[in-house]
Amino acid sequence: MEVRQRFAGLFFLSLSLTLFLNVTASSEESPAAFASIRDGATVSAVIDLNGDWQFKATDETEWLKAHVPGVVQSDLLRSGRLKDPYYRDQELEAQWVEKKEWEYRRSFTVDSQFLKHDRILLDARGLDTIAEVFVNQTPVAKTKNMFIEYEWDIKPLLRAGANEIHVVFRSILEWNKQQITSEPKVIWCKDAELMDCRKGNVFFARKEPSNFGWNWGPRLLSSGIWRPIRIAAYDTGRITELTIRQDLSNPAGAILNVTTKLDRFDPKTSLKLELEVMLDGRRITSSRLNVTSNELSRELTIAQPRLWWPNGWGEHPLYEVTARLTSGGREVHRQSHRIGLRTVRIVREKDARGESFAIEVNGKILFAKGVNWIPADALTDQLTETNYRRLLEACVRQ
Q: Which residue in 107, 13, 6 sits closest to 53, CA to CA?
Protein backbone atom coordinates (compact mmCIF):
# COMPACT_ATOMS: atom_id res chain seq x y z
CA MET A 1 0.00 0.00 0.00
CA GLU A 2 1.19 3.52 -0.78
CA VAL A 3 1.16 5.63 2.36
CA ARG A 4 1.41 9.41 2.55
CA GLN A 5 1.48 11.30 5.79
CA ARG A 6 1.05 15.01 6.39
CA PHE A 7 1.09 16.82 9.68
CA ALA A 8 -2.21 18.46 10.37
CA GLY A 9 -2.05 22.03 11.58
CA LEU A 10 -3.77 21.74 14.94
CA PHE A 11 -4.50 24.16 17.70
CA PHE A 12 -4.05 21.39 20.28
CA LEU A 13 -0.35 22.02 20.61
CA SER A 14 -0.71 25.01 22.96
CA LEU A 15 -2.15 23.77 26.22
CA SER A 16 -1.32 26.23 28.95
CA LEU A 17 -4.35 28.49 29.46
CA THR A 18 -5.72 28.36 32.98
CA LEU A 19 -9.38 28.59 31.97
CA PHE A 20 -11.23 25.92 30.01
CA LEU A 21 -13.82 27.41 27.65
CA ASN A 22 -16.80 25.17 27.06
CA VAL A 23 -18.29 26.53 23.86
CA THR A 24 -20.51 23.59 22.99
CA ALA A 25 -23.29 24.63 20.61
CA SER A 26 -25.88 22.87 18.54
CA SER A 27 -24.99 21.81 15.02
CA GLU A 28 -27.88 24.00 13.80
CA GLU A 29 -25.95 27.13 14.76
CA SER A 30 -23.13 26.52 12.29
CA PRO A 31 -21.10 23.60 10.90
CA ALA A 32 -18.50 21.90 13.05
CA ALA A 33 -15.17 23.70 12.88
CA PHE A 34 -13.28 20.66 11.58
CA ALA A 35 -15.90 19.27 9.21
CA SER A 36 -14.50 20.78 5.99
CA ILE A 37 -11.33 20.39 3.94
CA ARG A 38 -9.74 23.70 2.97
CA ASP A 39 -6.27 22.77 1.79
CA GLY A 40 -6.32 24.63 -1.53
CA ALA A 41 -6.04 21.44 -3.59
CA THR A 42 -8.39 19.92 -6.17
CA VAL A 43 -9.43 16.35 -7.00
CA SER A 44 -10.68 14.76 -10.21
CA ALA A 45 -13.58 13.08 -8.40
CA VAL A 46 -14.52 12.36 -4.82
CA ILE A 47 -16.72 10.07 -2.74
CA ASP A 48 -17.61 11.87 0.49
CA LEU A 49 -17.57 9.48 3.44
CA ASN A 50 -18.72 12.04 6.00
CA GLY A 51 -22.20 11.86 7.48
CA ASP A 52 -24.09 8.82 8.72
CA TRP A 53 -22.12 5.83 9.99
CA GLN A 54 -22.78 3.07 12.49
CA PHE A 55 -20.82 2.40 15.66
CA LYS A 56 -20.66 0.07 18.64
CA ALA A 57 -18.30 -1.21 21.29
CA THR A 58 -16.34 -4.19 20.02
CA ASP A 59 -17.74 -6.37 22.81
CA GLU A 60 -21.35 -5.51 21.95
CA THR A 61 -23.65 -6.60 19.12
CA GLU A 62 -26.03 -3.69 18.53
CA TRP A 63 -24.95 -1.10 15.97
CA LEU A 64 -26.03 2.48 16.74
CA LYS A 65 -26.19 5.57 14.59
CA ALA A 66 -23.04 7.68 14.42
CA HIS A 67 -21.98 10.91 12.73
CA VAL A 68 -18.62 11.54 11.08
CA PRO A 69 -16.58 13.67 11.66
CA GLY A 70 -17.07 13.10 15.37
CA VAL A 71 -15.98 11.26 18.48
CA VAL A 72 -17.53 8.36 20.34
CA GLN A 73 -18.68 10.43 23.32
CA SER A 74 -20.77 12.65 21.05
CA ASP A 75 -22.35 9.60 19.40
CA LEU A 76 -23.09 8.13 22.83
CA LEU A 77 -24.68 11.41 23.92
CA ARG A 78 -26.95 11.40 20.86
CA SER A 79 -27.92 7.79 21.45
CA GLY A 80 -28.81 8.48 25.09
CA ARG A 81 -26.10 6.20 26.52
CA LEU A 82 -24.11 9.04 28.03
CA LYS A 83 -25.02 12.00 30.21
CA ASP A 84 -23.62 15.46 29.57
CA PRO A 85 -20.06 15.21 30.93
CA TYR A 86 -19.90 18.99 31.45
CA TYR A 87 -22.73 18.94 34.00
CA ARG A 88 -21.70 18.72 37.66
CA ASP A 89 -19.53 15.62 38.22
CA GLN A 90 -20.95 13.60 35.32
CA GLU A 91 -17.47 13.65 33.80
CA LEU A 92 -16.74 10.75 36.16
CA GLU A 93 -19.73 8.80 34.86
CA ALA A 94 -18.41 9.15 31.29
CA GLN A 95 -15.01 7.61 31.90
CA TRP A 96 -16.12 4.03 31.29
CA VAL A 97 -15.93 4.93 27.60
CA GLU A 98 -12.12 5.08 27.62
CA LYS A 99 -11.84 1.49 28.84
CA LYS A 100 -13.70 0.05 25.83
CA GLU A 101 -12.77 -0.36 22.19
CA TRP A 102 -15.05 1.06 19.52
CA GLU A 103 -15.68 0.35 15.86
CA TYR A 104 -17.27 2.36 13.06
CA ARG A 105 -18.56 1.21 9.71
CA ARG A 106 -20.48 2.43 6.69
CA SER A 107 -21.20 1.29 3.15
CA PHE A 108 -20.66 3.34 0.01
CA THR A 109 -21.24 2.85 -3.68
CA VAL A 110 -18.59 3.01 -6.39
CA ASP A 111 -19.55 3.06 -10.06
CA SER A 112 -17.45 1.62 -12.86
CA GLN A 113 -16.58 5.09 -14.17
CA PHE A 114 -15.00 6.07 -10.84
CA LEU A 115 -12.75 2.99 -10.97
CA LYS A 116 -11.23 4.24 -14.25
CA HIS A 117 -9.37 7.08 -12.53
CA ASP A 118 -5.60 6.68 -12.45
CA ARG A 119 -5.18 6.94 -8.69
CA ILE A 120 -7.79 6.39 -5.95
CA LEU A 121 -6.83 7.23 -2.38
CA LEU A 122 -8.55 6.88 0.96
CA ASP A 123 -7.99 10.36 2.41
CA ALA A 124 -8.38 10.36 6.21
CA ARG A 125 -7.68 13.77 7.76
CA GLY A 126 -7.87 12.72 11.40
CA LEU A 127 -8.14 9.38 13.21
CA ASP A 128 -8.23 9.48 17.01
CA THR A 129 -5.95 7.58 17.74
CA ILE A 130 -5.06 3.86 17.80
CA ALA A 131 -6.95 2.82 14.69
CA GLU A 132 -7.13 -0.13 12.32
CA VAL A 133 -8.63 0.60 8.91
CA PHE A 134 -10.29 -1.97 6.64
CA VAL A 135 -11.84 -1.65 3.19
CA ASN A 136 -14.01 -4.58 2.09
CA GLN A 137 -12.64 -6.66 5.00
CA THR A 138 -9.05 -6.10 3.82
CA PRO A 139 -6.61 -4.41 6.25
CA VAL A 140 -5.41 -1.07 4.90
CA ALA A 141 -3.38 0.46 7.74
CA LYS A 142 -2.82 0.92 11.46
CA THR A 143 -2.39 4.38 12.93
CA LYS A 144 -1.18 5.84 16.22
CA ASN A 145 -1.16 9.58 15.58
CA MET A 146 -4.19 11.83 16.00
CA PHE A 147 -2.41 14.80 14.41
CA ILE A 148 -1.44 13.31 11.04
CA GLU A 149 -3.43 13.24 7.81
CA TYR A 150 -3.18 9.93 6.00
CA GLU A 151 -3.59 8.76 2.41
CA TRP A 152 -3.66 5.14 1.26
CA ASP A 153 -3.98 3.78 -2.26
CA ILE A 154 -7.13 1.61 -2.17
CA LYS A 155 -7.93 1.29 -5.87
CA PRO A 156 -7.12 -2.49 -5.90
CA LEU A 157 -9.58 -3.03 -3.02
CA LEU A 158 -12.60 -1.33 -4.56
CA ARG A 159 -15.29 -2.93 -6.70
CA ALA A 160 -18.17 -1.59 -8.73
CA GLY A 161 -21.30 -1.45 -6.58
CA ALA A 162 -21.47 -1.72 -2.79
CA ASN A 163 -18.31 -1.37 -0.68
CA GLU A 164 -17.66 -1.09 3.05
CA ILE A 165 -15.20 0.79 5.21
CA HIS A 166 -14.61 -0.34 8.79
CA VAL A 167 -12.44 1.42 11.40
CA VAL A 168 -11.63 -0.09 14.80
CA PHE A 169 -10.38 2.18 17.59
CA ARG A 170 -8.40 0.48 20.32
CA SER A 171 -8.31 1.73 23.91
CA ILE A 172 -5.25 3.94 24.16
CA LEU A 173 -4.97 3.04 27.85
CA GLU A 174 -4.61 -0.66 27.10
CA TRP A 175 -2.39 0.05 24.12
CA ASN A 176 -0.03 2.14 26.25
CA LYS A 177 0.13 -0.62 28.87
CA GLN A 178 1.17 -3.07 26.17
CA GLN A 179 3.94 -0.72 25.02
CA ILE A 180 5.26 -0.38 28.58
CA THR A 181 5.32 -4.15 29.00
CA SER A 182 7.11 -4.73 25.70
CA GLU A 183 9.65 -1.91 26.07
CA PRO A 184 12.32 -2.70 28.69
CA LYS A 185 13.73 0.84 28.54
CA VAL A 186 10.58 2.25 30.13
CA ILE A 187 11.59 2.33 33.78
CA TRP A 188 10.26 5.72 34.88
CA CYS A 189 6.64 4.79 34.15
CA LYS A 190 6.66 1.98 36.67
CA ASP A 191 6.62 4.66 39.36
CA ALA A 192 2.92 5.09 40.15
CA GLU A 193 3.55 8.53 41.67
CA LEU A 194 4.37 10.06 38.30
CA MET A 195 1.29 12.01 37.22
CA ASP A 196 1.40 11.19 33.50
CA CYS A 197 1.70 7.49 34.21
CA ARG A 198 -1.16 7.63 36.67
CA LYS A 199 -3.30 9.25 33.99
CA GLY A 200 -2.28 6.66 31.41
CA ASN A 201 -0.51 9.18 29.19
CA VAL A 202 2.92 7.73 28.42
CA PHE A 203 3.62 9.26 25.01
CA PHE A 204 3.81 6.12 22.89
CA ALA A 205 1.15 7.60 20.62
CA ARG A 206 0.47 11.16 19.48
CA LYS A 207 -2.77 11.89 21.31
CA GLU A 208 -4.12 15.23 22.53
CA PRO A 209 -2.59 15.31 26.06
CA SER A 210 -5.44 17.30 27.62
CA ASN A 211 -7.79 14.37 26.90
CA PHE A 212 -6.15 12.63 29.86
CA GLY A 213 -7.31 15.41 32.16
CA TRP A 214 -6.00 18.94 32.78
CA ASN A 215 -6.42 21.62 35.40
CA TRP A 216 -8.81 23.54 33.12
CA GLY A 217 -10.71 20.68 31.51
CA PRO A 218 -12.33 17.28 32.03
CA ARG A 219 -10.82 13.87 31.42
CA LEU A 220 -12.53 12.62 28.26
CA LEU A 221 -10.39 10.16 26.32
CA SER A 222 -12.03 10.45 22.93
CA SER A 223 -11.77 8.16 19.93
CA GLY A 224 -13.25 8.38 16.48
CA ILE A 225 -12.95 9.85 12.98
CA TRP A 226 -12.63 13.42 14.20
CA ARG A 227 -11.81 15.14 10.89
CA PRO A 228 -13.16 14.60 7.34
CA ILE A 229 -12.71 11.33 5.48
CA ARG A 230 -13.22 10.75 1.76
CA ILE A 231 -12.12 8.76 -1.27
CA ALA A 232 -10.26 11.04 -3.66
CA ALA A 233 -9.51 10.21 -7.29
CA TYR A 234 -6.83 11.75 -9.51
CA ASP A 235 -5.91 11.54 -13.18
CA THR A 236 -2.67 12.04 -15.13
CA GLY A 237 -0.76 13.57 -12.22
CA ARG A 238 -1.00 15.74 -9.15
CA ILE A 239 0.96 18.17 -7.00
CA THR A 240 1.83 16.49 -3.70
CA GLU A 241 3.80 19.36 -2.17
CA LEU A 242 3.92 23.10 -2.70
CA THR A 243 6.69 24.79 -0.71
CA ILE A 244 7.32 28.55 -0.72
CA ARG A 245 10.43 30.19 0.74
CA GLN A 246 10.80 33.94 0.96
CA ASP A 247 13.81 36.20 0.39
CA LEU A 248 13.05 39.79 1.46
CA SER A 249 16.64 41.04 1.49
CA ASN A 250 15.78 43.51 -1.30
CA PRO A 251 12.92 45.80 -0.20
CA ALA A 252 12.13 46.62 -3.83
CA GLY A 253 11.55 43.02 -4.87
CA ALA A 254 10.61 39.99 -2.78
CA ILE A 255 11.81 36.67 -4.17
CA LEU A 256 9.70 33.56 -3.73
CA ASN A 257 11.44 30.26 -4.26
CA VAL A 258 8.56 27.95 -5.18
CA THR A 259 9.20 24.20 -5.13
CA THR A 260 6.66 21.59 -6.21
CA LYS A 261 6.77 17.83 -5.87
CA LEU A 262 4.64 15.84 -8.30
CA ASP A 263 3.11 12.44 -8.79
CA ARG A 264 3.01 11.52 -12.48
CA PHE A 265 0.82 8.50 -13.14
CA ASP A 266 1.96 8.21 -16.77
CA PRO A 267 5.54 9.45 -17.28
CA LYS A 268 4.98 9.57 -21.04
CA THR A 269 2.27 12.21 -20.77
CA SER A 270 3.50 15.76 -21.42
CA LEU A 271 2.76 18.08 -18.51
CA LYS A 272 3.25 21.77 -17.81
CA LEU A 273 3.38 23.56 -14.47
CA GLU A 274 1.91 27.04 -14.20
CA LEU A 275 2.78 29.21 -11.19
CA GLU A 276 0.84 32.35 -10.33
CA VAL A 277 0.84 34.92 -7.52
CA MET A 278 -2.31 36.94 -6.86
CA LEU A 279 -3.11 39.77 -4.44
CA ASP A 280 -6.63 41.15 -3.95
CA GLY A 281 -7.78 39.41 -7.13
CA ARG A 282 -4.98 40.87 -9.25
CA ARG A 283 -2.19 38.84 -10.84
CA ILE A 284 1.18 40.00 -9.53
CA THR A 285 3.50 37.59 -11.35
CA SER A 286 3.43 34.19 -13.06
CA SER A 287 5.64 31.60 -14.71
CA ARG A 288 5.24 28.49 -16.82
CA LEU A 289 7.60 25.55 -17.19
CA ASN A 290 7.69 22.10 -18.69
CA VAL A 291 7.57 19.17 -16.29
CA THR A 292 10.87 17.36 -16.71
CA SER A 293 11.11 15.70 -13.29
CA ASN A 294 9.03 15.00 -10.20
CA GLU A 295 10.47 18.02 -8.38
CA LEU A 296 10.57 21.50 -9.90
CA SER A 297 11.68 24.88 -8.54
CA ARG A 298 11.28 28.40 -9.87
CA GLU A 299 11.97 31.86 -8.48
CA LEU A 300 9.21 34.45 -8.71
CA THR A 301 9.79 38.15 -8.01
CA ILE A 302 7.17 40.40 -6.44
CA ALA A 303 7.92 44.06 -7.15
CA GLN A 304 7.23 46.52 -4.31
CA PRO A 305 6.00 43.83 -1.93
CA ARG A 306 3.39 44.68 0.70
CA LEU A 307 4.58 43.36 4.02
CA TRP A 308 2.50 41.43 6.54
CA TRP A 309 2.56 42.73 10.12
CA PRO A 310 1.37 41.21 13.40
CA ASN A 311 -1.93 42.33 14.87
CA GLY A 312 -1.82 45.97 15.90
CA TRP A 313 1.35 46.82 13.99
CA GLY A 314 0.14 47.20 10.42
CA GLU A 315 -1.64 45.55 7.51
CA HIS A 316 -2.03 41.81 6.93
CA PRO A 317 -1.99 41.40 3.11
CA LEU A 318 -2.02 37.78 1.98
CA TYR A 319 -0.63 36.73 -1.38
CA GLU A 320 -2.16 33.63 -2.98
CA VAL A 321 0.40 31.36 -4.64
CA THR A 322 -1.14 28.79 -6.98
CA ALA A 323 0.47 25.90 -8.84
CA ARG A 324 -1.50 24.34 -11.72
CA LEU A 325 -0.60 21.11 -13.43
CA THR A 326 -1.88 20.98 -16.99
CA SER A 327 -1.93 18.45 -19.82
CA GLY A 328 -2.78 19.56 -23.33
CA GLY A 329 -4.02 22.87 -21.96
CA ARG A 330 -6.39 21.13 -19.54
CA GLU A 331 -5.90 21.53 -15.80
CA VAL A 332 -5.47 18.17 -14.08
CA HIS A 333 -4.60 19.37 -10.59
CA ARG A 334 -4.17 22.57 -8.61
CA GLN A 335 -2.80 23.52 -5.22
CA SER A 336 -2.62 26.96 -3.62
CA HIS A 337 -1.39 28.60 -0.42
CA ARG A 338 -1.99 32.02 1.09
CA ILE A 339 1.14 33.61 2.55
CA GLY A 340 2.19 36.83 4.24
CA LEU A 341 5.50 38.37 3.26
CA ARG A 342 7.54 39.07 6.38
CA THR A 343 10.82 38.43 8.14
CA VAL A 344 10.94 37.20 11.73
CA ARG A 345 14.09 37.08 13.83
CA ILE A 346 14.89 36.40 17.47
CA VAL A 347 17.43 39.03 18.55
CA ARG A 348 19.90 37.83 21.18
CA GLU A 349 22.75 40.26 21.72
CA LYS A 350 25.15 40.87 24.59
CA ASP A 351 24.17 43.78 26.82
CA ALA A 352 24.85 45.14 30.29
CA ARG A 353 22.63 42.52 31.91
CA GLY A 354 23.86 39.56 29.89
CA GLU A 355 21.93 38.93 26.71
CA SER A 356 18.85 40.44 25.14
CA PHE A 357 15.85 38.52 23.88
CA ALA A 358 13.55 40.31 21.47
CA ILE A 359 11.29 39.54 18.52
CA GLU A 360 12.07 41.43 15.36
CA VAL A 361 9.50 41.52 12.51
CA ASN A 362 10.36 43.17 9.20
CA GLY A 363 13.44 44.73 10.78
CA LYS A 364 11.52 46.28 13.68
CA ILE A 365 11.69 45.08 17.28
CA LEU A 366 8.17 44.66 18.62
CA PHE A 367 6.64 44.25 22.03
CA ALA A 368 5.06 40.80 21.87
CA LYS A 369 1.94 39.91 23.80
CA GLY A 370 -0.77 37.38 23.19
CA VAL A 371 -2.91 34.62 24.57
CA ASN A 372 -2.43 30.90 25.06
CA TRP A 373 -4.85 28.70 23.17
CA ILE A 374 -6.27 25.49 24.53
CA PRO A 375 -8.68 23.05 22.89
CA ALA A 376 -11.94 24.98 22.83
CA ASP A 377 -13.96 21.84 23.49
CA ALA A 378 -12.95 18.45 24.85
CA LEU A 379 -15.19 16.90 22.18
CA THR A 380 -13.76 18.19 18.93
CA ASP A 381 -16.95 17.90 16.86
CA GLN A 382 -18.84 20.11 19.33
CA LEU A 383 -16.80 23.20 18.40
CA THR A 384 -18.67 25.10 15.68
CA GLU A 385 -17.21 27.48 13.11
CA THR A 386 -19.18 30.32 14.71
CA ASN A 387 -17.69 29.75 18.14
CA TYR A 388 -14.22 29.12 16.76
CA ARG A 389 -14.36 32.49 14.98
CA ARG A 390 -15.74 34.19 18.11
CA LEU A 391 -12.85 32.93 20.21
CA LEU A 392 -10.22 33.91 17.64
CA GLU A 393 -11.71 37.38 17.31
CA ALA A 394 -11.59 37.68 21.10
CA CYS A 395 -7.87 36.82 20.94
CA VAL A 396 -7.32 39.53 18.33
CA ARG A 397 -9.00 42.12 20.54
CA GLN A 398 -6.72 41.40 23.52
A: 107
